[in-house]
Structure formats: C-alpha cells, structure tokens
Specification:
Blueprint: H1 2-23, H2 29-36, H3 40-68, H4 70-89, H5 94-122, H6 125-157, H7 161-164, H8 166-180, H9 195-213, H10 218-238, H11 252-280, H12 286-292, H13 294-310, H14 316-337, H15 346-369, H16 376-405, H17 408-447
Length: 448
C-alpha cells in the first residue's frame, strides 16, 4: 500500500508547497511593507512576480520535462524552489524579495507540470481518478489555506517564517521522490526545445500582465503582447517540435478545461481582496482573516475527494460545467449577502469551494485524457499556464475594480460573471463535441 501511494505522497507534498506560496503572502503583505519599507506597487509584484513566472514558464517546463524526463525535472525544480525560498526569507529589501519570488516561480512552474505528468505515469483507471482527486484537493486546500497559515506564521513568527517553512517541506519531498517516483515516458530523443516559442510566449504574457498592473504603460504593453502572441502562433505552426501543439485546440475537451481553469483561478484572486477587506475594514488580525477564509478550503478539499472517486462514471464535461456554475453561484451569493460583518462571506465561500472542488479533478482527468501520452507534459503545462495566468490576470483586473470602487462586492460580482461564462461555454463546447461525434457515427453507419 505504501509503495502504491508513495508516489502520490511525494507529488502532493511538493505541489502543496508551490501552490501554498501563491496565496500565503496575502495576509503578510502589510507586515512586509512595514519591515522592508515597500510601496504598494512593490507589494503587488511580490504576489505577481511568482504567479507570472509560473504562467510564463509552465509551457516551457512541460516541453523540457517531456524531453529530459519528468522525474529529473521534478527533483531539480524542488531544489531550485528551496534555494529561492531561503533567498526570500533573507531578503533585505523589496527588490531582492521580488527577484527571489521570481526564481521561486521558475522552480514552481517545472514542479507543477512534472507533477501532473508523473501522476499520469504512475496511475491508471480508477486509481488515476482517485489520485487526481486527492491531488486536486491538496491543491485547492493549499491555495485556500495559504492566507490562514500565512496569517498565523506572520503574527507569531514574522513574515520570514512563511518562506522558511518551505525548507523542511522541500527536504521531505526529495526524500519521498528518491524512494517512490519512477521516470515518466519521454518524447523522442531527436526533438529540440522550442526556444523561439518560449521567448515569444513569455514576452506576450509578461507584457499583458505588466500592462494591466502599470497604468502608465498599458497601450504600448498591450500592443507588444498582441504582436508577441502573433509571433508565438507563427513559430508554433512552423517548428517541427513546438512547445504547444496548436492542433490540441481542436479538441473540445482540451479547450473546455482551459476555459474553466481560467475562471476558477480568478476565484483565488478574490481571496487577496477579501483578505485586505477583512483586515482593513473588519480590523481582523492576520490569523483571524485567514481563518475566515477556511470554509472555502475545507469545502473544496472534501468535494475534490468525493468527486475524484466518481470520475470514471461521469463525463468530465458535465462536472466541469457544474463546478463553474457553482463557483458563479457562490460568488454571486457573496455579492448579494455582503454586509458589515465577515460572517456574511460564509455561505458564498462554501458554495464557491464546492464548485472549485468539483471542477478540479475533472479538469485534471480531462486534460490527460485529451492528448496522447507523450504529450502529457505539454498538456499539463498548458493547464498550469492557464491556471496561473488566470490568477495573475485576475489579481490585476480585480485590482482595477477594487481600486475604482473600493467595494468587495463588485469584485465578487465580476468573478461570478467570469465563472458563469465558463459554465455556459463548457456546456456549449460539450454539446458541439457531442454533435460532431453523432455526425461521425451517422456517416460511418451510412458507409456500411
């Protein structure tokens, strides 16, 4: 039994650590500002430098892992992450902290993509559904408990403790990896890394996010982002071994997963502004603010475990649409019930957590099932990229909403709209795929 689930333990521990660091800094930002003399813009980049690098490099990491071996990449990424975490904890100023956070993103991107591919390599059938359910629950729990854990550590041990924590977690991950993980299938040895695609995609994503955050440079950055995206598409269509095979976007299930992932990631972006509201308006301590967000984490964790065990019997498309719909309903409920007390968040957090817990395992299963096995790293990278881009862009876009209205309800309302669009598109995409399948079946029958 230990041998069977040992790989899952190693993957989940590493994944917990990297997702935790996307939200753990949320409630620590005020203490960081005081300790480092940082401005508001610097604080935004403490959050976004990590998630942006995660998004930009996830596709590249997937391609590298397919070529070099996912286990090897996983080990290297955990090591890089640990060293960068130490740099964050010892940072003497905001600039060093932002730089170390970016290096964390390098390790985190490779770790995330390798984790999904290694899960696919170690588990099949019902076991894969269970493993993905547990893994997704861990991811959801890590992201949602990050504010609470960050608040507790910041309040009692200082903000540096949130980064020192990664050192023992990294050591334990490497120990489990050495005992239980085996190498995943590699792509043909003659393939090459798509450097042109990496540069073009990084330029497009970076310019887009920078343009959303820095108001003075929006138009030039948006033009640069568009131009770089066009170059990326041209490169991917011409190179022999692209980092992202554009033909994957012809697969309905692949596109559906990415749409829902972006929408669900914007929900995590809401937690940043909910935490700010809890501390600045409700005057809660960092630990109390984090505790107020726990219902989302608990509901997401439990729901992921339940759904993961039942995935083989239900279409992932149905579950994805249901998850997005519940997330939309939860955010709408938070908008409608928000008042002068933090308890008004509770019902919406529970419903939203259920939606995220439902969509997560289905998305992981669908993305691995939608592509050939030797493209698992590429598909995993695409999913990780869209997840982090969704969160990074969500922070930027929702930040514009919050800054202009100073109303947390408006943040929830915008997020509800995004989730509802994802739910509708999920259903439409599934129906379109079903219609094509029936047409092919009818044509085949007529041919006979």
């Amino acid at each position: 039994m230990v041998r069977k689930w040992g790989p899952l333990a190693a993957i989940c521990l590493g994944s917990f650590m990297l997702i935790l660091d996307t939200t753990v800094v949320t409630v620590a930002l005020p203490e960081m500002a005081r300790g480092l003399g940082a401005s508001l813009a610097s604080l935004q980049w403490v959050v976004n430098s990590y998630t942006l690098v995660l998004a930009v490099l996830a596709l590249s990491a997937g391609a590298i892992g397919d070529l070099a071996g996912q286990r090897r990449v996983f080990v290297g990424s955990v090591t890089v992450f640990a060293v960068a975490s130490l740099g964050c904890a010892l940072a003497p100023n905001a600039g060093v902290l932002i730089g170390a956070r970016a290096v964390q993103g390098v390790g985190g991107a490779a770790m995330m993509v390798a984790a999904m591919s290694l899960l696919g390599a170690h588990y099949e059938g019902k076991d894969r559904g269970s493993a993905l359910g547990i893994w997704t629950a861990v991811l959801g729990g890590a992201g949602a408990t990050g504010p609470f854990l960050g608040g507790v550590l910041t309040q009692w041990a200082g903000w540096q403790a949130i980064f020192f924590l990664n050192l023992p977690l990294s050591a334990a991950t490497l120990l489990l990896t050495s005992k239980y993980l085996v190498e995943a299938p590699k792509r043909p040895s003659g393939t090459r890394i798509d450097l042109g695609g990496m540069v073009a995609f990084g330029a497009s994503s970076g310019a887009l996010v920078y343009g959303l955050i820095e108001a003075d440079d929006r138009l030039p950055m948006f033009i640069l982002a568009t131009a770089a995206l066009v170059v990326f598409v041209m490169v991917e269509r011409r190179v022999r071994h692209p980092m992202l095979d554009l033909a994957l976007f012809r697969r309905a299930s692949f596109v559906t997963v990415l749409i829902v992932v972006v929408a669900s990631s914007s929900v995590f972006a809401c937690l940043i502004y909910a935490s700010i509201w809890l501390q600045s308006v409700q005057r809660l301590s960092p630990a109390a603010a984090g505790l107020a967000l726990i219902p989302l984490a608990a509901t997401s964790f439990v729901t992921s475990l339940v759904i993961g065990k039942r995935l083989p019997a239900v279409s992932p498309g149905i579950i994805l649409g249901l998850g997005a719909l519940l997330a939309a309903a939860g955010c709408a409920l938070e908008w409608a019930m928000l008042d002068s007390t933090w308890l008004s968040l509770l019902p919406g957090l529970i419903v939203t957590g259920a939606g995220m817990g439902i969509a997560g395992p289905a998305g992981s299963t669908a993305i691995l099932s939608a592509v050939p096995r030797d493209r698992a790293g590429m598909a995993s990278g695409a999913m990780a990229t869209f997840r982090q881009l969704g969160q990074t862009l969500g922070v930027a876009v929702l930040g514009l909403v919050y800054a202009s209205t100073a109303d947390l309800g408006d943040v929830f309302l915008v997020t509800a709209g995004l989730s509802l669009v994802a739910a509708v598109l999920s259903v439409l995409t599934r129906n379109s795929a079903g219609a094509r399948s029936r047409t092919r079946g009818s044509s085949a029958a007529a041919g006979r």
